[in-house]
Design brief:
Blueprint: H1 8-27, E1 33-34, H2 36-43, H3 48-56, E2 62-66, E3 69-73, H4 74-84
Antiparallel strand pairs: 1-3, 2-3
Length: about 90
């Protein structure tokens, strides 16, 4: 058995990072299909036209279970945001 010793500050910093990681993981496990309003919040857009453009261009997945109800795939929104991310060196 190994014993690892660390300072209080390092331990609590590690604990905070672990909690943040778990919270982020749990948040991504939310509903598969989300409303247009929730999709706009996640994409940080305010225009329904922009949301429709992303849908029409096939950049995010959606379903339309009824005539006036459009739901968006939260996983495809996350993929879209990941693909748009830029690495800065």
């Amino acid at each position: 058995m190994e014993v690892i010793c660390m300072e209080d500050k390092a331990f609590f910093a590690l604990l905070d990072r672990a909690v943040d990681h778990i919270k982020a993981h749990l948040e991504t496990k939310g509903d598969k299909w989300i409303s247009g309003e929730e999709a706009m919040l996640r994409l940080h857009i305010t225009s329904k036209t922009t949301l429709q453009k992303l849908r029409n261009e096939g950049k995010i997945r959606f379903t339309q279970p009824e005539k006036k109800i459009i739901l968006y795939d939260s996983d495809s929104i996350n993929v879209y945001l990941d693909n748009a991310a830029k690495n800065v060196s």
